[in-house]
């Protein structure tokens, strides 16, 4: 990742202890977020999304692992530093309006409050509140209490509250969970505008898969670990996606997934790859010069005829290509052969490309060459 990292978590672990019970909520999670990015975190209930957000927001302490945000080491904050971190660096938006806004205060006073806690002068916070109400399109609602506002308007005020102290990182935990789909889209689009206009880094937890088309990356968490990453890309027109492979069905703007590979080569293929290529049970791993190809076991021999007869120019494999058959389970989990991780420089992650008959894994450095991520320079206020 070329941009400055704002969030850098590695092997993050969170264990909750209750009486004699231990719940491992995060079990070795890796996450990197560049300054100015907007990413979504998705995952089943209980997968650890809120735990991660609470740690990043300084509301909870990690049990082990690296967790750095804007130079703050979240595992080593004393009370004073933690309060400063929460007040100055972080904006939080929750699903429930009651958690975002105080019901007895007007919209304007709700936005004033966090600034007053930060000892901002009255003149400055009133000016900032007026500006924020304008930004969220609610200037005329300044004196309304939350119950006098619609759900979408309440979340707009919540966004203004979260932005009050100009946070570096905005954390939104299911901010549209209680809204209808049209209002949800408006709020997500609005968060995107904030991200673009002010360069505020945003991490959004959501169940809404449509959000993937709005954010820069979507990271899926499974059982307290990062499992897949979907990057929204702009592929240049007329550029071959992958020389030497027939990638199917990728429009100019497409989603490609990056998966994580651990040190011993364990990985899980994304669901769509498993749906398109019948790899279940066993797969043949072909180690090419710069990437790996995973073929359904037996199919290659059928296509190439006898290996002893040489090579197939059509499918680009020579008889000398190193091949090995490995096991793969129903949900796409497998362990790459040692030789594969030694020969291909994955450095923990691979881009998945699905072809007609096979699934390819490319190291990011090679996969990214010539295919630029659609990113913008953050604007500062
Ligand atoms: N304070 C706590 N004490 C004990 N266990 C907890 C605590 N908070 C979370 N957990 C447990 O940690 C695991 C991860 O929970 P978390 O709330 O982070 O998941 P989630 O992905 O946000 O779920 P949801 O989508 O339902 O909000 C769960 O097993 C949960 O029961």
Describe the structure.
- Pfam families: ABC_tran.
- Residues 7-248 form the ABC transporter domain.
- Keywords: ATP-binding, Nucleotide-binding, Transport.
- This is ABC transporter ATP-binding protein.
- GO terms for molecular function: ATP binding; ATP hydrolysis activity; transmembrane transporter activity.
- Helix 4 (107-117) packs parallel to helix 6 (151-163) and helix 6 packs parallel to helix 7 (181-198).
- The chain folds into two domains: 5-222, Rossmann fold (3-Layer(aba) Sandwich); 262-367, Chemotaxis protein chec.
- It contains eleven helices and 18 strands.
- The protein is elongated, with a radius of gyration of 24 Å.
- 27% of the residues lie in helices and 30% in strands.
- The strands form three sheets. The chain has a twelve-stranded mixed sheet with strand order 6-7-8-3-9-10-11-17-18-14-13-15, with helices on both faces.
- Residues 234-255, 306-315 and 370-381 have low confidence and may be disordered.
- The protein is α+β, with helices and mostly antiparallel strands and 381 residues long.
- Bound molecules: adenosine-5'-triphosphate.
- The site of adenosine-5'-triphosphate has 12 residues, from strand 1, strand 2 and helix 1.
* Radius of gyration, in angstroms, nearest whole number: 24 Å
Percent in helix: 25-40%
> What is the percentage of strand-forming residues?
25-35%
Separation of the first and last Cα atoms: 24 Å
GO cellular component, one term: membrane protein complex
Keywords: ATP-binding, Nucleotide-binding, Transport
GO molecular function, one term: transmembrane transporter activity
Domain ABC transporter: 7-248
